[in-house]
Design a protein that fits this description.
Elements: H1 5-9, H2 16-36, H3 40-65, H4 74-84, H5 98-112, E1 118-122, E2 128-135, E3 144-149, E4 155-159, E5 163-165
Length: about 170
């Protein structure tokens, strides 16, 4: 018997609580993608398809089991937000499987570090500067971008581990 697409990707060994946690993290990742992807079609897909579907599932599990969720607990939202958004560097995007990771991760990086997007830059002295991406050609292979620091014409190359996007 041939597996259907949903059976192929469903992890039947995952507990309800693990599934519930995954849904909330996936919701926050979809929320991030809806903000960084520039095309209206992509924004609509993440907001109307992905986020709404995950929201409904999260609320059902939350209500049925009297559990706090990202929708009824500020602390839960912050906990999962921090899991997805580290202090510096690229967010921890989630992917359905290795195949989808292969083709979506490149797009996630390019859109997160898109030209003209604003970032906080952690400088070597511990200070923070505001900057804009001026060139992201090396983001995929080398993990570097060129930025222009605000109120200057000074362009520098920085590693993505020292950047946090301003959303």
């Amino acid at each position: 018997m041939e597996e259907t697409k949903s059976q192929k990707y469903k992890n039947r060994d995952q507990s309800l609580l693990d599934f519930y946690k995954s849904l909330q993290i996936e919701y926050i990742v979809a929320e991030l993608r809806s903000k960084i992807y520039p095309k209206a079609k992509d924004k609509k897909y993440y907001k109307n398809r992905v986020m709404l579907g995950k929201r409904e599932s999260i609320l059902q599990i939350s209500e049925r089991n009297h559990l706090p969720s990202i929708f009824n607990s500020k602390d839960k939202y912050e906990e999962f937000y921090k899991e997805v958004h580290p202090d510096w560097g690229i967010p921890r995007f989630t992917y359905r499987d290795e195949e989808s990771k292969k083709w979506i991760s490149k797009s996630d990086k390019l859109n997160y570090y898109s030209v003209n997007s604003e970032f906080a830059l952690l400088l070597e002295n511990g200070c923070i500067a505001i900057c804009k991406i001026s060139n992201n050609n090396a983001v995929i292979m080398e993990g570097k971008v060129y930025v222009i620091i605000r109120d200057t014409d000074h362009e520098i190359e920085v590693g993505i581990e020292n950047l946090k996007r301003i959303l």
